[in-house]
Specification:
Layout: H1 2-24, E1 32-38, E2 50-53, E3 56-67, E4 70-77, H2 79-82, E5 90-95, E6 102-107, E7 122-128, H3 132-145, H4 148-162, H5 166-183, H6 187-227, H7 229-252, H8 254-273, H9 275-287, H10 289-295, H11 369-374
Parallel strand pairs: 1-7, 2-6, 5-7
Antiparallel strand pairs: 1-4, 2-3, 3-4, 5-6
Pfam family, one: MlaD
Organism: Rhodococcus triatomae
Protein name: Phospholipid/cholesterol/gamma-HCH transport system substrate-binding protein
């Protein structure tokens, strides 16, 4: 009986210890799975590592799986904490100290969205704290590439160069500090200048092919000038002679040229004023040129005319037929150069002494000028 009681007591103690261990490991606590992916997890990341957010434990690491492309951490999250983790939360794998164990830390973003972390979510890790062994490994790789004797010689040379020059080195450092203090306010402008310089260099880089092509063309032009040097000299001599001759001609005729230009000033001014009308008239005349060619027989050899006889016009008499220049109104195209065939042009009335053409219906002798000079009084009716 005592043996059975002792066996029961031992069994009860084992059961209590087992239940305590299971409770300590969270075996009786429900959890929500979440997966974390990372390039690496380090040497001190173990299962049952803590999962925190803002320093508060919200779960634990259930398992760690290693893969060729990194590692996967299966987290056992506390269900009551899932609603407090934003859906867009970031994840980092950190360690408390350089040699301490790692833990998973959820980082709350500055602009959390309205949702929360869902069960089964897969979140990539942003960063993993570098371990001391990684630092030593990198340092070991660097030292393996450096030959100790050369390093020793370099350090010895630096030591010899600095020996006895502490004051000078301190002075140089002080001057450097003063220079940097003066340059520091100009750093933003320097940064802006560097950005602009980058744009300029990019522009130069884009135009380099055209620049090189231009240089090639200039080289070809230079070679041509060298090859035609004799002809170029002759050309310059001829141009010099022409310039001398032209100078002499212009100098001798300077008064005549000035007078001619003065006389042409009113004419050119009038032409300038009527330049729009001249332009539309010439363009309009050119537009009707094909029609005129057809009327005049342009589509056949020879010329097509419709000839007839009209009464002769009265001869010119002085001063009755003197021209009268008194028209005003300035230039006007009146529909040219593309007139509307359905619109009649305006009838312009000007004070020039002219009247619409009316054919003469009276036969009058038109004596030759010689007879008019020799025999005074032999004029048409109304003449003088």
């Amino acid at each position: 009986m005592k043996k059975v009681a002792a066996l029961g007591l031992v069994g009860g103690l084992v059961a209590i210890v087992a239940v305590a261990l299971v409770m300590f490991s969270g075996g009786f606590t429900s959890s929500t799975p979440v997966t974390i992916t990372a390039d690496r997890v380090g040497l001190v990341m173990e299962p049952d590592a803590k999962v925190k957010m803002l320093g508060v434990e919200i779960g634990r690491v259930a398992s760690i799986e290693h893969a060729p492309d990194g590692a996967r951490l299966e987290l056992a999250m506390q269900p009551s904490m899932m609603a407090l983790v934003p859906a867009n939360a970031r994840v980092e794998i950190k360690s408390t100290t350089v040699f301490g164990a790692k833990y998973v830390d959820f980082i709350v973003p500055t602009d959390p969205d309205g949702g929360h972390l869902q069960p089964g979510a897969v979140i990539p890790s942003d960063s993993v704290t570098v371990e001391f062994n990684t630092v030593f490994q990198h340092l070991s790789d660097v030292l393996a590439q450096i030959e100790p004797e050369k390093l020793n010689a370099t350090l010895g040379a630096i030591s010899s160069a600095l020996q006895g020059r502490g004051d000078e080195l301190g002075s140089v450092l002080e001057q450097t500090e003063s220079y940097l203090a003066e340059m520091n306010p100009s750093l933003p402008q320097l940064q802006e200048d560097l950005v602009k310089a980058a744009n300029v260099t990019n522009l130069y880089a884009d135009t380099v092919p055209d620049l090189l092509h231009t240089v090639d063309n200039v080289t070809t032009t230079g070679n041509t000038v060298v090859e035609e040097q004799t002809n170029l000299d002759l050309l310059l001599l001829n141009v010099t002679g022409l310039a001398n001759t032209s100078n002499q001609v212009l100098r001798d005729n300077e008064p005549n040229l000035v007078s001619a230009l003065d006389l042409l000033t009113p004419t050119t001014g009038l032409l300038e004023e009527y330049a729009p009308q001249l332009s539309c008239f010439i363009v309009g005349l050119n537009n009707v040129r094909p029609l005129g060619e057809e009327i005049m027989g342009g589509g056949q050899p020879g010329i097509a005319l419709s000839a007839g006889f009209f009464y002769g016009a009265e001869p010119y008499t002085y001063p009755r037929d003197l021209p009268k220049v008194n028209a005003t109104g300035g230039p006007g195209c009146y529909g040219l150069p593309n007139p509307d065939p359905n619109v009649n042009a305006k009838f312009v009335v000007t004070d020039t002494g002219t009247v619409p053409y009316v054919p003469s219906t009276v036969m009058q002798p038109n004596m030759p000028k010689l007879f008019q000079l020799l025999f005074a009084g032999v004029y048409p009716e109304g003449g003088q």
